[in-house]
């Protein structure tokens, strides 16, 4: 009995491990291939007998990317747009969530639903109206245009998530602060926001990743070369002369880097926040 | 009576009303005066409006009608932070990301109290509540009892005009609750501030308060000293809400005849003594409920007089200092309370009699008491008598966890 039980357990664990690693492999292999390709010279990239690891390591693709192409500029553009979009969603989302959870006003429930509705539209539907509005404001082909659009499309999610987060913070905390002499604003800043940090971090990361990888909006709103963001920039390696695989993969690797770094740095705080959930606030 | 703290203030509620929805009247208080330096409890079942009343006094809710006065000053339009009050919440509401010290100092900083004074008050409160070793800790590193004391400390350092306490003991375990109860009484004595305490626990209310306002459906049913509320409940609700086991009530009618007043119901006929008849507000016939508290019933265990009532024992609960005996009679069950441990057999036929001078009569129609209180009720309770000098306010509870 015991032997068969142990056998079953071992087989089950083995099977689970196998499937898990299979999934990991499928997910990670393209990234691995990108890294591997970015480190080969041009000859090897187009060779008919590919090997898993490069036979001769070279950083020439990265050098090309930095010197010949407009990569640094595009990287900076993407960073500025992604960081400010994420900050702006966190800022407006927090204020909105505060008012949605701490005040009662006419049309509160309705406004929340309407906001959700806008999130459910495919972004493509908004392309034309957005473009017309932004052109009317003279904002096309600028960081501001992208930041506004990314904020507008990300805010519904931010609002809903932060609202849920704020709901879990007991209202007695703000009340205690206000009895202690704090104004509404300083109660929010001194007491409430510190409790909401994990929620704010998750929203920041989510919007950052969305904005960082967005291809649609820059394609429509950005025309001048100096304003291009990375996803569009990658496209310049695929032109009428063919694909420049080496530099293309180098850009891809560097493109993925900030997201990886961000997750690694903030992950512990994020997991702590999510895991603790209301516990981060419960005491 | 102790002298109230010079900063303590009267709190007066004047025609205070709070409507939550069109027809949902949460609070409706005509007139209520909380004298400076007194410990006053708002007592009632959940949903009776006691917490809302406290929040109105704190300024966390705005009244629909009416005015709140602190002394002579109307404060209805004053924001909570400027009312010079402090509040202890049921869940303590300590700021989780701040240390105990920062929690205590937050309100002082917001009120621009200079550093020296802040440190003086911090030292005073942390000595009184034995928080010295905990100042650098975060709230989540504290036990329930310790958090409770930090919450009290945060209110104390403010040196407020009034202390508001919203069920502060209900999250503690039974033993700690008992301990904190006596500590709160001593705290009130030593700082002498007006304290307004909200609870649904009648034992807390009876043991701690100098005055109790019993509330129901947003209205104050009776506002008086604990003794008066216990001895002369103003209506049926107060009579049954206060006291455990609850007062025995028997419905019947009041008749005059044979030169005296009689209470009759199915299986029960009592001649009421003069002391009761004199206090009767409306002596004519009416449907009434007769009330008698379990301790005002005498059980004839050794011998049975001829003219007593008789019942069969159905429940015996020996509690140590007292024994609760429930009897079954033709007119209903009778809960009684006798001193000490009594070995009483089930199914025993026992004689008993009501203390005729301690009966209560309520109108069946309105529920109001039909008897006037007899004479003034004893002197107001002073918390001075409770504390015998030299004791520290808080005993060592720091090692306890809840």
Strand sequence of the main sheet of chain A, in spatial order? 1-2
Total number of β-strand segments of chain B?
20
Overall spatial form of chain A: globular
**Alpha carbon gyration radius of chain B:** 24 Å
Based on Cα principal axes, name the global outline of chain B: elongated
Can you walk through the features of this model?
The complex is a heterodimer of chains A (283) and B (402). Chain A has 283 residues and is mainly alpha-helical. Chain A contains 12 helices and 2 strands; from the N terminus they run H-H-H-H-H-H-H-H-H-H-H-E-E-H. Chain A has 2 domains: 2-38; 69-280, MetI-like fold (Orthogonal Bundle), CATH 1.10.3720. Chain A is 76% helix and 1% strand. In chain A, a hairpin with a 2-residue loop joins strand 1 and strand 2 (242-243). Mean pLDDT of chain A is 87; it is low at 275-283. Chain A has a two-stranded antiparallel ribbon with strand order 1-2. Chain A is globular, with a radius of gyration of 24 Å. In chain B, a hairpin with a 2-residue loop joins strand 17 (322-329) and strand 18 (332-339). Helix content of chain B is 22%, strand content 32%. The radius of gyration of chain B is 24 Å and the shape is elongated. Chain B is α+β, with helices and mostly antiparallel strands and 402 residues long. Chain B folds into 2 domains: 11-231, Rossmann fold (3-Layer(aba) Sandwich); 249-363, OB fold (Dihydrolipoamide Acetyltransferase, E2P). Chain B has helices at residues 50-58, 100-110, 115-128, 144-156, 174-191, 202-208, 226-231, 236-241, 274-277, and strands at 11-19, 25-34, 39-43, 65-70, 73-74, 85-88, 162-166, 194-199, 211-216, 219-224, 248-257, 260-265, 268-272, 286-292, 297-300, 309-318, 322-329, 332-339, 349-354, 360-363. The chains are: A mainly alpha (283), B alpha+beta (402). At the A-B interface, helix 8 and helix 9 of A face strand 6 and helix 2 of B.
